[in-house]
């Protein structure tokens, strides 16, 4: 005779049939110190994310009980800031590692959907002028709208045949093009470029270039290092400075451009899933790109909430772009004229 087998639902036994969400973990039951040490952020910041993403993360589900937005956000923050799906972290909020993985995917997509809300250049004249004034206050470089650079994030090999993601060190990576302001707030983040592309090729194809060539380069410029070509809207250092004015220009350029390098270090320190200390991102290039962008969104939101951009120690192995490039002096005569005028007007 066939014996019926009952499949026990542990959550049902624990919470009863009327329970609709897995709310084993309550923010109000733990201290801020615990939240920061485990999930990387204080209570106020986490509550803001719940308000911001709650509706998206509460979409209808086929499951009998959905995981609450609060729990999904904690799971994702735990991964972003630690770089691993730790069993103890899942246990703390009452979900399995498989559920944690789904939570990371859900929260990542919700943040990516809002990227343009938090990562963008200012448009009104007063804010643009404040942006320039803040940069000028760093080292006396006028007209700066942002500092730009690339950084590599290691990912798993997509497949044996695809060499487009193999960088010059022989590692698989994404080459991420970013721009920030003087406080480290990201103004642009393109995180999907294959690691084999040099910085100059990334910029050539980037949305950033079309933006500046069509609308944003009036009365100002970005600062980039010598891996980029000089353009009317992108000031690069002089390869071989000769005059005192050229030396002063290069020194001001270097001191100002250093902000993006510090910003990369801070993002790496805060979001350990990107720094390589727990291994490469174990996702496809597209999903890895979305995780990086989600971390960029969180970086900007954290600055809005007064979390100090420079407070975290620099650790880990997120690769700064250290390309062996030929010094590329621009053949753009107008760009050369703009830089020369800048030298004469402000550094002579």
Automatic annotation (TrEMBL):
Residues 148-300 form the DDE Tnp4 domain. InterPro entries: HARBI1-like, HARBI1_animal, HARBI1_dom. Keywords: Cytoplasm, Hydrolase, Metal-binding, Nuclease, Nucleus. The keyword Nuclease applies. Pfam families: DDE_Tnp_4. Its cofactor is a divalent metal cation. The keyword Nucleus applies. GO terms for molecular function: hydrolase activity; metal ion binding; nuclease activity. One of its GO terms (cellular component) is nucleus. It is found in: Cytoplasm; Nucleus. Transposase-derived protein that may have nuclease activity. Does not have transposase activity. Belongs to the HARBI1 family. PANTHER family: NUCLEASE HARBI1-RELATED (PTHR22930:SF253), PTHR22930. This is Putative nuclease HARBI1. It comes from Serinus canaria.
């Amino acid at each position: 005779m066939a014996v019926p087998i009952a499949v026990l639902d542990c959550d049902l036994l624990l919470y009863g049939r009327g329970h609709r969400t897995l709310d084993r973990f309550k923010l109000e039951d733990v201290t801020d110190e615990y939240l920061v040490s485990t999930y990387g952020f204080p209570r106020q910041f986490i509550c803001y994310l719940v308000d911001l993403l709650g509706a998206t993360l509460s979409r209808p589900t086929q499951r009998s009980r959905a995981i609450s937005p609060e729990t999904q956000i904690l799971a994702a923050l735990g991964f972003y800031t630690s770089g691993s799906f730790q069993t103890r972290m899942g246990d703390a909020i009452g979900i399995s590692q498989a559920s944690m993985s789904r939570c990371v995917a859900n929260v990542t997509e919700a943040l990516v959907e809002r990227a343009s809300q938090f990562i963008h250049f200012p448009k009104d004249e007063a804010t643009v002028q404040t942006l320039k004034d803040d940069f000028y206050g760093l080292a006396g470089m006028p007209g700066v709208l942002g500092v730009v650079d690339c950084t590599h994030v290691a990912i798993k090999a997509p497949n044996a045949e695809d060499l487009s993601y193999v960088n010059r060190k022989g590692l698989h990576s994404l080459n991420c093009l970013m721009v920030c302001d003087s406080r480290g707030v990201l103004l642009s983040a393109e995180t999907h470029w294959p690691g084999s592309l040099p910085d100059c090729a990334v910029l050539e194809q980037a949305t950033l270039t079309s933006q500046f060539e069509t609308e944003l380069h009036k009365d100002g410029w970005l600062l980039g290092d010598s891996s980029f070509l000089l353009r009317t809207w992108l000031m690069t250092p002089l390869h071989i400075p000769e005059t005192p004015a050229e030396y002063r220009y290069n020194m001001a350029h270097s001191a100002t451009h250093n902000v993006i390098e510090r910003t990369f270090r801070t993002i790496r320190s805060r979001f350990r899933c990107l720094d390589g200390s727990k291994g490469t991102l174990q996702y496809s290039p597209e999903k890895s790109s979305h995780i990086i962008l989600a971390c960029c969104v969180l970086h900007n939101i954290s600055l809005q909430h007064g979390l100090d951009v420079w407070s975290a120690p620099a650790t880990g192995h997120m690769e700064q772009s250290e390309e062996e490039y030929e010094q590329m002096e621009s053949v753009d005569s107008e760009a050369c004229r703009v830089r020369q005028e800048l030298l004469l007007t402000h550094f002579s």
